[in-house]
Design goal:
Layout (H helix, E strand, L loop, with lengths): L4 E3 L4 E4 L5 E3 H23 L7 H23 L2 H6 L2 H4 L2 E4 L2 E4 L7 H19 L3 H25 L14 E3 L6 E2 L2 H20 L2 H4 L4 H17 L17 H28 L1
Parallel strand pairs: 1-6
Antiparallel strand pairs: 2-3, 4-5, 6-7
Length: 276
């Protein structure tokens, strides 16, 4: 077979109890959140901004991410099923043979997670009197790191993989089939880390940093444009997407790209006005 890698890793690291597993996905998700938090914390320290409320920000972001990602999956990808099984939306259980059993969450949507985080940050800014766009510029540095680790978790789970490929970089996800496929999880992880480098480099420029919202605009545009492009190499997540011109992931990315471009245009004009 032409696949570069035959992938058959058990997604469970070990079982904490007989019914509760510790999975690579969850561990990498948590590591990504903590690393993203560390990036923002280091930015705060460098700018000599008080760290007093930063731990609270982490709590807001975690809750917003998980709730938003879960609700996003349920509403965007499987609304009919979850309207009939509402208890499964926020509880990691599934009805099997008439009784509920722990199975872990069977879907999280990054677009929903983004919306959840934004709403959580709005609440945080209102409570702690922080400028919304100022904070988003700094959050934009940490989020790509978190997103990269989440995609690595998807790779460990052998999920959200790509379409078949004849390239030598193809990966055979043995848990599903023996077809070499695009490792789109790794494509996304690499793209997000590259975006982190780009944004961090931009953040070093005082002229860019002084215009609140400009870096966040580049963040939205770059991250969701990367997602839009990589989706062309990815298998659809749900059957209904097969009849769509572009899939749900791409459709949901478009508004974020447009918002990002709008911010870039408006804030670039504002930056020019400052420099006059």
């Amino acid at each position: 077979m032409s696949g570069l890698l035959n992938w058959n890793v058990d997604p469970v690291i070990f079982w904490i109890t007989n019914t509760f597993p510790l999975k690579y996905y969850g561990a990498l998700f948590a590591c990504g959140l903590l690393l993203g938090y560390y990036v923002v914390r280091e930015v705060y320290k460098k700018e000599k901004v008080s760290l007093e409320s930063l731990d609270s920000l982490l709590v807001y972001v975690i809750v917003g991410t998980i709730l938003g990602a879960r609700l996003g999956h349920c509403l965007f990808y499987e609304p009919t099923y979850f309207m009939q099984h509402p208890i499964e939306i926020l509880l990691p259980i599934q009805k099997i043979k008439g009784s509920y059993a722990f199975v872990g969450f069977q879907g999280l949507a990054s677009h929903g997670g983004t919306i959840g985080v934004l709403l959580a940050i709005v609440l945080y800014c209102r409570k702690f009197k922080v400028k919304f766009l100022w904070l988003l510029d700094r959050m934009a540095l940490g989020v790509p790191v978190t997103a990269a680790f989440i995609r690595l978790g998807n790779f460990m789970n052998s999920e959200i993989y790509g379409k078949p490929t004849n390239g030598n970089w193809g990966v055979i996800f043995q848990k599903d089939d023996l077809i070499p496929r695009h490792p789109t999880q790794l494509y996304e992880a690499f793209a997000y880390l590259l975006i982190f480098v780009i944004l961090f480099t931009m953040f070093k420029s005082e002229k860019i940093k002084e215009v609140n919202g400009l870096i966040f605009g580049y963040f939205l545009t770059l991250l969701f444009l990367a997602r839009f492009i990589i989706e062309f190499f990815k298998e659809n997540q749900e059957h209904f997407e097969n009849d769509m011109l572009i899939n749900m992931g791409q459709l949901l990315s478009v508004p974020f790209i447009l918002i990002g471009l709008t911010l870039i245009i408006l804030k670039s004009k504002q930056r020019k006005e400052y420099s006059l």
